[in-house]
Amino acid sequence: MLSYRHAFHAGNHADMLKHLVLSLCADYLTRKDKPLVYVDTHAGAGAYRLSAAQAQKTKEFETGIARLLKADRVPVEVQGFLDVLTGTGLDLNELYPGSPTIAASQLSPDHRLQLFELHPNDFPALERHFHGDRRVRCYQRDGFEGLLSAMPPKERRALVLIDPPYEQKSDYDQVADTLATVTRKFQPVCALVWYPIVQRERSDTLVRKLKKLSKNWLQAELNVSEDSSGYGMTGSGMFVLNPPYLLAEQLQRCLPWLTRQLAPEGFYRLDNKAD
Ligand code: SAM
What we know:
275 residues; alpha/beta; Rossmann fold; eight-stranded mixed beta sheet; 10 strands
């Protein structure tokens, strides 16, 4: 079942949280002049046209990226993120970049990207988007299996994004089981897991399992409204296994501002454990 299309949601509040955290982690990991592989298990199409019928149907980007582009007094961490988006070379009023495009713009020429995407329309779009970029390999295969086959990486340093659609309930268990296997094959891996808040019980169970995988983790959530016990997504979260040591401090500084912009009637959560 592949009914989820990210084109309906690109640039929304959940993308803002996910891509902000991704860009902060990529920024930290690319400071050292050392080999690195980026693995995106559910890469999507690479870029999304905001004037396309799908984006126009929901207009979710209007309460996400469009608000950040118009905002004043932007905190330095969010400004850094907006600069990364601009650095992709896309006209942000027309096109919103997906996670692999954001990571690719931060990685250097000797870094590698492994991108997994199953959808019969999004996969060719992803391949076209990265055509000619010799750092990138796109695979039309299951991203959970792809991640396991990519570990341990020859670089011994990896940034991983796990961003499934969760349209199948089994995605929750598969995220936790896959990451548990990854940590047995290779440590420490900096792994980012995005999760929706639809049924609080489900996301809490996932996060409880993920917290057991390392002594170093961070959890950040942006809740746009109070929990509705299963009736639609009320927010989303990012769980980071082995986060860069600066990440908690950076998010502490900018999440209150981000919440005021994107979730004025909501709230954020930030929790972390460092060994
Ligand atoms: N990571 C992207 C971004 O932030 O720009 C968005 C990804 S979207 C939330 C999830 C994607 O996973 C969809 O494009 C969907 O087609 C794809 N997908 C669903 N199941 C998959 C699987 N088992 N393996 C790889 N891709 C899958």
